[in-house]
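Q: Please design a sequence for this.
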C-alpha cells in the first residue's frame, strides 16, 4: 500500500510539472518571499526586544551600584562615629565619662550629618550615659534587641539591627551599634547611631524606576529595611523567601535576573548588589511590562505593515490560484492534506513513543514492549532479560553542577546506553528520572551480563566529572534479571521489574558502579 501511494504521488507530481511549471514556481517563489518577510520581521522584533532588556539590565545594574555606594558611605560615616564614641567611652570608663563634652560632640555630629538622626552611649545596665539629644531620656534601653545582642556577643564590629521607632521622635530608624568593653573585657555598654530611614527614602525617590518599579534595602538575612513604594508596615518584615534573597544566596554578591515578586506578583528585571563590609543588600527593579511598553508599540506598527504586505502578496497568489481548474485545485488540496496528516502521524508517533530529553523510548513504550515480550517469551519458551540501571549520586550531581548540566549528563548517558543493545528487537528506554531500562528479547543471563557490562563501560568512557562520586566521574549501577515466563507460572512483567530492581538495589548497596545479576553476588 505505501509503495502504491508513493507511485501515485510521483506520477501526479510529474504531470503537474509538465502541465503548469510556471504556476508552481511562481507560487513557491511568492510563498518563500512571504515566509522570508515574516521571518525577518520576527527576527528583527526579537533582536530589538533582547536589546531593550539588555539595555535596561545595564541601567538597573548601574543603579544598584549607585545605591550600594550611597549606603556604604552612610554606614562608613556611622561606623567612624561609633568607633570614636567607643574609644572615648573605653578610655574614660563609664563612671568617669564626661557626659557634657560627649553631648556637645555628639550633637555637633548629628547637626552636620544628614543620615544620622541620634547618637547614644549606654551603660551596661541600659541607662543612657550620653546622647546627642538636648536632654537624657529617662529609663533604660535594655529591652532593645541590639542591646541584648551585644550583652551576649563579644564581637566588637559594627552591627546593623532591625528597624526601630525612636523613643524620642517616634521616627523609623536603623540602629547601627558597637559594643563597649570594660578594661577586663566584660560588657560595658553600647554605642548606637540611628540612621534616618527617610534619608534613604528621599535618595531612592530621586531615581526613576517607573510606576511599578521598586528599590529594596535589606539585611542579607532577609530583614527588610526599606522598599519603594514605601509602606511602614513592611519595615522589619522578612523577605528571606523572596526571589531577590534566593538569587543572592544562589548567585553571589552581584546579579541581574527577571524575577516575579512575591509581594505583588509583578514580573520585574532585578539587579542587586551586596555591600562591601556590611551585611546589607540593595536591589532595584523595573517592571517587564513597562520596559517593553515602547517595544510593543513598535511591534504593532511594524506588524501592521508586514501583515499588509503579506496580505497583498496573498491576494496576488489567490488570484493566480483561482485560474487553475477546480479539479487541479482539489487534487492539490487533497495531496497537501494527506502529506500534512502523514507528517502529523509521524510526529505523534515519535512524541508518544520517545522521551523528549534523551530521545530513548519513554515509559509508556517500555511498559507495552515489556508486556509484549513477556507474552511472546511465555509462548515461545525462550528467555528474555531486563536491565534496570540508575545514574549514581545523580541528585548530588544536580546540586553541584545545576539542572542544565544534569540534563546534559542524562543525554550523554542515554547515548552510551543506546550503544549497548544492537538488535532491532532490543529496546532502551528512560524508566523515570535518572533511571533507565533495557529489554533484551531472546537473551540469556550471559548475554544480558555482557550487554550490561558494555553499557557500564560506555558510561565510564564518557569521562563526565562528578566530584561527589566515589570514582570521581559519572557512573551507573545495573540490575539484571533473566525471565523465563514459560517455566515460571508466577512470572509477570511487574515481577520481572521488581526482580531487576532488587538486583539494582543490591548493586547500589555494595558500592555502586557495578552490576548485579538476580540471584548472583555483585560483580564489580
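A: Design:
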Amino acid at each position: 500500500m505505501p509503495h502504491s501511494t508513493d507511485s501515485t504521488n510521483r506520477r501526479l507530481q510529474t504531470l503537474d510539472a509538465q502541465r503548469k511549471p510556471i504556476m508552481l514556481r511562481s507560487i513557491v517563489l511568492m510563498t518563500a518571499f512571504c515566509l522570508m518577510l515574516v521571518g525577518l520581521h520576527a527576527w528583527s522584533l526579537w533582536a530589538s526586544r533582547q536589546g531593550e532588556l539588555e539595555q535596561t539590565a545595564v541601567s538597573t545594574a548601574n543603579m544598584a551600584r549607585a545605591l550600594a555606594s550611597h549606603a556604604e558611605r552612610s554606614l562608613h560615616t556611622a561606623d567612624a562615629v561609633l568607633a570614636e564614641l567607643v574609644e572615648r567611652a573605653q578610655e574614660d570608663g563609664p563612671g568617669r565619662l564626661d557626659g557634657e563634652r560627649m553631648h556637645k560632640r555628639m550633637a555637633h555630629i548629628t547637626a552636620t550629618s544628614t543620615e544620622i538622626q541620634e547618637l547614644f552611649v549606654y551603660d551596661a545596665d541600659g541607662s543612657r550615659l550620653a546622647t546627642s539629644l538636648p536632654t537624657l531620656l529617662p529609663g533604660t534601653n535594655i529591652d532593645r534587641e541590639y542591646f541584648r545582642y551585644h550583652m551576649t556577643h563579644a564581637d566588637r564590629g559594627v552591627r546593623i539591627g532591625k528597624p526601630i521607632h525612636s523613643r524620642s521622635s517616634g521616627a523609623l530608624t536603623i540602629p547601627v551599634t558597637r559594643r563597649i568593653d570594660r578594661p577586663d573585657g566584660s560588657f560595658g555598654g553600647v554605642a548606637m547611631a540611628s540612621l534616618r530611614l527617610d534619608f534613604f527614602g528621599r535618595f531612592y525617590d530621586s531615581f526613576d524606576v517607573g510606576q511599578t518599579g521598586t528599590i529594596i534595602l535589606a539585611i542579607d538575612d532577609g530583614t527588610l529595611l526599606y522598599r519603594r513604594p514605601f509602606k511602614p508596615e513592611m519595615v522589619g518584615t522578612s523577605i528571606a523567601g523572596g526571589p531577590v534573597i534566593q538569587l543572592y544566596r544562589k548567585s553571589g554578591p552581584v546579579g541581574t535576573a527577571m524575577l516575579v515578586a512575591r509581594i505583588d506578583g509583578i514580573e520585574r528585571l532585578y539587579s542587586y548588589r551586596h555591600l562591601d563590609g556590611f551585611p546589607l543588600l540593595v536591589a532595584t527593579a523595573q517592571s517587564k511590562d513597562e520596559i517593553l511598553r515602547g517595544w510593543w508599540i513598535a511591534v504593532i506598527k511594524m506588524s501592521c505593515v508586514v501583515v499588509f504586505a503579506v496580505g497583498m502578496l496573498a491576494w496576488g497568489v489567490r488570484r493566480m490560484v483561482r485560474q487553475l481548474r477546480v479539479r487541479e485545485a482539489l487534487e492539490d488540496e487533497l495531496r497537501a492534506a494527506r502529506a500534512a496528516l502523514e507528517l502529523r502521524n509521524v510526529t505523534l508517533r515519535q512524541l508518544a513513543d520517545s522521551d523528549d530529553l534523551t530521545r530513548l523510548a519513554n515509559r509508556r513504550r517500555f511498559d507495552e514492549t515489556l508486556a509484549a515480550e513477556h507474552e511472546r517469551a511465555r509462548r515461545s519458551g525462550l528467555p528474555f532479560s531486563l536491565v534496570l540501571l540508575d545514574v549514581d549520586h545523580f541528585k548530588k550531581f544536580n546540586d553541584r553542577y545545576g539542572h542544565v548540566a544534569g540534563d546534559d549528563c542524562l543525554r550523554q548517558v542515554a547515548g552510551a546506553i543506546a550503544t549497548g543493545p544492537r538488535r532491532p528487537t532490543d529496546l532502551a528506554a528512560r524508566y523515570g528520572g535518572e533511571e533507565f531500562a533495557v529489554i533484551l528479547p531472546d537473551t540469556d543471563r550471559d548475554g544480558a551480563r555482557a550487554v550490561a557490562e558494555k553499557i557500564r563501560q560506555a558510561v565510564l568512557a564518557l569521562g563526565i566529572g562528578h566530584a561527589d562520586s566515589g570514582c570521581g566521574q559519572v557512573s551507573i549501577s545495573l540490575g539484571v534479571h533473566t525471565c523465563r515466563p514459560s517455566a515460571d507460572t508466577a512470572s509477570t512483567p511487574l515481577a520481572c521489574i521488581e526482580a531487576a530492581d532488587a538486583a539494582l538495589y543490591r548493586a547500589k548497596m555494595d558500592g555502586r558502579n557495578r552490576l548485579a545479576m538476580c540471584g548472583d553476588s555483585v560483580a564489580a
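Q: Thanks. Anything notable?
A: DSSP finds 14 helices and 16 strands in the chain. The chain has three domains: 2-51+306-347, 52-305, 363-517.
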